[in-house]
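Figure S4 source data
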Amino acid sequence: MRTSLRKVTASGLMLFVGALAIMLAGCGGAANNSGPLPDSQQVFRYPLNANGTDIKTMDPALVQDYYSYFPVELVFPGLLTLNANGTPIPWAAASAPVYDAAAKTYTIKVKPGLRWTDNTPINAQTYEYSINRALSPCTASPVTYYMFAIKDAPAFSTEKCGSDGVTVNGPIKSLIGDSLNAPDTQTLVITLSANAPYFLQALCYPTAFAQPQQLIQQYGVKEWTSHLTGFGGNLYKLQTWDHKGNVILVRNDSFWGAKPKLREIDFKVYQTVAAQYADYLDGRLDQGSAPPDQYVQSKKRSDFHELGALWINYYQPVWNKAPFDDVRVRQAFDLALNKDVLANQVNHGSVIPSNHIVPEGMYGYNPNLTGPDGTQNLTGNPARATQLMQSYANDKCGGKISSCTPVTLVDVNEPAVQTADQAAVAMWQAAFPGMTIKTQFIDFNSLITLIYSPNIPQIYGIAWIADYPDPQDWLSLQFAPGAINNTGNVVVPQANQLMAQADQDLNAVTRAQAYNQAEQLLVTNVAWITQNQQKLFYNLPTYVHNYQITSLGVIPLSNWQQIYLSAH
């Protein structure tokens, strides 16, 4: 799950793309004809707007946020990776996986000779172990659902972990020898429970990356990432992770393929977008992104770039917490928002107002989708919102809106987010006179922890960025029964049936139709209060060459191999 801080830009997160393709921005150095810097100076300083002082994890099995994804992807190799078009291509795999529809198995050949920097082999058994570990209840991963198409994976992930923290107690003690099989060192066979057209895309997520069994066994499931200095198995190895905002990677000379031209990548974690952009303007970073209030000014610079992003900013009303346990309240809160004003005035045009869950520009987008009031209006319907809230108050609050359950919106303590939230609260208070609506702002990592805890707030703000360009990533992963990411406790039975049908449908046309119908039901019932679809914009100096970022908000691995810096 690539949850993210809302209303941030290229270095912080990821809009529309053509038809079924993913947009790609490519630039860097076109106007700079000087030669490459010496290898010793090929150091790329890259920001992560993580609203804190550290990334959340370096464990591939635990990655659920956008910011941790960057260094993890570069250190731990996946069998497959998404190319610039969002298509899965072999990486550690020697060739494309072969699917047997009758047996529901994928057979994947692993490239021979792959090794970690400590010379331990990376082979089929490595991936068998790694996927099993990501799904094990003893790992307690919050993102096991990426692999739930694997036979017995949902049941295995919910077994009990033994007191030793390693042994699984229950009927299914391991998927190894069950749905994960490595008959030899170069062959991995994965058995699915049913057809899953999206599975190879999901296999590109970190839950399927290679994990070093030797370190995990030596140092323990919780401490092994503290012993990664000098270690890696992909393009780079970890040199520094100081938990004070610095993650430094250096080239892995034992990488099996083309060596990256950048010798070092210095990731810097920022608490605010404004601080990050100030550092860029002062020359302390090699890529920068402006906060919304500087977006218009940033666009005037010659180093400005923009593309669409598969990224939705939304408020999550929690359906089993009053007052959002009533559809009238959820619809009222949605319809009270003038999304056009929030996008174009409060956020200065850095986002596009939307009612959608599935973003524009990818397969499964529904141009005919309507909001909770049955229209495509994006300027709100405050009269209808007030009417809905009064109807609820008549039934639940003694007829007085002011007597209804107070609401506290929880969000990240990023200034741009706070400004937008305060504008939204003002719209809600105007539509619901006397209702107590407050805000609470915390850091991003704390918010992620909170929303997956028993103390989840009534409503919170967050963003979702596509892991892969498929509606399953936006619908089933969010709202299907048992979906770990369904933190809002959303239940729409008819939508559940449609999502389950679409998840297994190998016909692209009927599959999209089923997802469209499910999305409309979810929007009408307000599974999310969608605010907008984010634009991906950034500033990049001309001395950075071959830099490309996709609408998924990531730099493809093949592009990381090509980026270099010239004299400046």
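Figure S5 source data
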Amino acid sequence: MAARAPTSALGNSTATVHETLRFQRTLLAAATVVACITLFAVTLPSAAADADNGNSFGLLSILPPIIAILMALITKDIIVSLMTAVFSGALILEGGHVFAAFAAVIERFVSPALADPDHAAILVFTALLGCMVGVLSRGGGTQGIVAWIAPRATTATRGQTSTWLLGTTIFFDDYANTLIVGPTMRPILDRLKVSREKLAYIVDSTAAPVVSIVPISTWIGFEIGLVQDAFNGLELDFNAFSTIVASIPYRFYQVFALALGLAIAFWGRDFGPMLKAEQRAASGKVVDDGQVPLGDFSADELTPPEGAPKRLINALLPILTVVIVTIIGLYVTGSRAIADAASAGGFTTLREIFANANSYAALQWASFSGLVVAIILVVSQRILTLREASDAAVAGLKAVLVAFVVLILSWSLSAVCSEMNTADFLVQITEGQIAPQLLPALTFVVAGAVAFATGTSWGTLGILTPLVVPVIHGLSISAGWEVGSGIYMSLLLATIAAVLSGSVFGDHCSPISDTTILSSMASGCDHLAHVKTQLPYAMCAGAAAVGIGLFPAALQVSPWICLLIGVALIVGLVLRVGKPATR
């Protein structure tokens, strides 16, 4: 799952980056500590007194999320950053009493966040889907998808296009996507004289974008949890799953990044540093002199046994099971929710049924069904024993444990901000200062900057989603737009999509992102070479997302029109500016 939290031991390149930035981080950390201590000393007594009288904490109410962002910038550790932010909020709420704040972190915020039934349902779904991914990988199912596509790559352009198609096929988990596509297609593209930089780019630009668009993936539970929590805090009777699905047309960066990758692969035309890399590879040097490939990353626990068959059906059937059971579950739970209206003779549309569905229950049924089908397939075919299948499921579960911690802490930080009336304060200071139509584009830029500096798209989502949803709600209400009206919903959807899109954009540009590093490792590419060659492409897609997507969509231009125009311009850019490498 793309850049859920930076991993400290993924390669020497991360150590080099951390070493280079250590002095700057130390200075920034010191400045942050001094500023926070000063702010506490000056404002805490009066703020606490105001809070006791029912007033807002004022400027102090934005301190916890600011600390989360600054700590993430400094430490590159989203878990430490979120925990520090939660503790700082508890310290303010407890009037500066340290021991009371320590107790409040667990008793008042973390435990309720974990015990909430909806939160628990999201964690169960994510865990089950992670287990299924583990069984698919260990049982050779995902490799079966690869084996079906690989033989069809006979030229450089076909090889690149096949890599892109494979990257979009493995849509349920971006770690699985990166670590399967890269090693499988590398020998094929080496034979076709395609640079390792190009392979790393295609792998990286399909992993997170496609996984963050498809509503059946390891991302969806995380998104639902954050958005639903924001809705509950605002007492909005919206279904998070339906809202997230409705926001897909506004995820301009992901669509433009996918379109750019396909256009470059299909026409075999490049520009910027990538063109130089492709010209070098055309002469037979897929890795340049002096470059040091980051190596290959493989999870032994998820590698199929020696000689195990790689059957396409072992991946397709569990995935189709998840999709079908999700649809059935949404229909069944939605029908139950409006049974009274239906029995009274009222006409019920399919949209109304799905809007009233219990997505938590449906997703849990689906992920559990997919896991059961995956285990039955590999055990019945004697690819794995029941014990081995169980171990593979546990290995898949390990991959989402960090996501669990980030999500719980994000919920805790959201609860802190709710008690401190952070959203009300932000709306108050931005009302009349920022037009609601500007917030989606601004959110994209801020999310991109945070994700770039921290290397974590999931951490960025956890920090910003609880903030921007209340802000766009408050700004829209202040502008006189009713909840649920056309302009209100379009801005809400665009803002929610902008957080996710900006996070993926910043993640693509960041040299310390997990998926950026994993893409280099899986593709056998020099890490800095991958960052250098991918950056211009990511910037093009990001600029298009803001200028052609978010700005017009916020002005009520149909997102579908924005997507069509954006994709057309991207294709035109590749054909006009891009040049083919002589092979």
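Strands lie at 269-270, 579-580. DSSP finds 26 helices and two strands in the chain.
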